[in-house]
Specification:
One of its GO terms (biological process) is GPI anchor biosynthetic process. The chain has 274 residues and is of the alpha+beta class. Helices cover 29% and strands 27% of the residues. The strands form two sheets. The protein has a six-stranded mixed sheet with strand order 3-4-2-1-12-11, with no helix packed on it. A six-stranded mixed sheet has the order 5-6-7-8-10-9, with helices on one face.
């Protein structure tokens, strides 16, 4: 099993408006994921250095950043970063350029962990619905153009408030969504902005929103997580849903058969026994 998570860490600025990277690391350690996609991982101004100092990550967690080396002092690109356990092998990595009015991008890494090969994409999409859809298409086209197809998990802050339209519909043509739940705002979650999606070859066994006192304070988003099973095309929840969908028609057929049997029995009984 592989545990993945996505977290908009808001540059390590909490709901108390204080920058506290130690608190962010506390939340990351609580997640205990094999792979984490981070959004807003860099400071916004100046050199845009990592909001989590490298030495804190090294000394106080089991994570290492995928080294995209896009900017000195940064652990990602346009705020997107991927963290993996220190034991994970990083096979390949690349930046995905996205169409946008303001600087936006996505990050991709091919990794090996627990004897499995996995492709991971982290993203933070635009506030504009039109640009979100363009960015979703760019990400999907980039994945499809890769030389070697791999089971892929896509994670990030999609900024999509609708339940099933916009970029969600575009991703749904190629991916399945983990039912994580509402993650924004961390103090009172009302929107499911943060998403985890998988392609064929990955099953979703469990998923949810990570809620803890530290997580409620560390950012305006709560982290979302999922437990994946390589080699399984469908999740347990999907199988249950499909089974429930089949129950309705089966019940109708049984009722029809029962009525037909009763009618046949009644037709053969003497009139006074009916």
């Amino acid at each position: 099993m592989i545990r993945v998570a996505s977290y908009n860490m808001r540059k390590a600025i909490g709901t108390d408006r204080r920058r506290n990277p130690e608190r962010t690391i506390e939340v990351l350690n609580e997640l205990d994921a094999d792979v984490v996609a981070l959004q807003e991982a860099d400071r916004r101004f100046g050199a845009r250095a990592s909001a989590i100092p490298f030495h804190l990550l090294e000394e106080h967690s089991d994570y290492k950043p995928v080294p995209f080396e896009a900017r000195d002092g940064s652990i990602g690109w346009h705020g997107n970063a991927l963290l993996v356990r220190k034991s994970v092998e990083i096979v390949d990595k690349t930046l995905i350029h996205l169409p946008s009015l303001e600087p936006r991008g996505a990050v991709l890494a091919d990794i090996r962990l627990k004897g499995e090969s996995l492709r991971v994409v982290g993203m933070h999409l635009d506030l504009s619905g039109l640009w979100r859809r363009r960015q979703a298409h760019a990400i999907l086209e980039h994945i499809q153009a890769r030389d070697a197809p791999l089971p892929t998990v896509l994670m990030g802050d999609l900024n999509e408030w609708s339940r099933g339209s916009g970029c969600l519909r575009d991703f749904a043509q190629h991916c399945r969504f983990a039912e994580c739940g509402r993650s924004f705002h961390s103090r009172r979650p009302v929107a499911q902005l943060d998403r985890i999606m998988v392609t064929d070859g990955l099953g979703i066994l469990e998923s949810g929103v990570h809620i803890s006192p530290a997580a409620r304070r560390a950012s305006d988003h709560l982290p979302v997580w999922a437990v994946l099973a390589p080699g399984h095309a469908h999740s347990l929840s999907e199988k249950v849903t499909h089974a429930i969908e089949r129950i309705g028609p089966m019940r109708r057929l049984l009722r029809q058969a029962q009525r037909g049997r009763d009618a046949l029995v009644n037709s053969r009984l003497p009139r006074r026994q009916r």
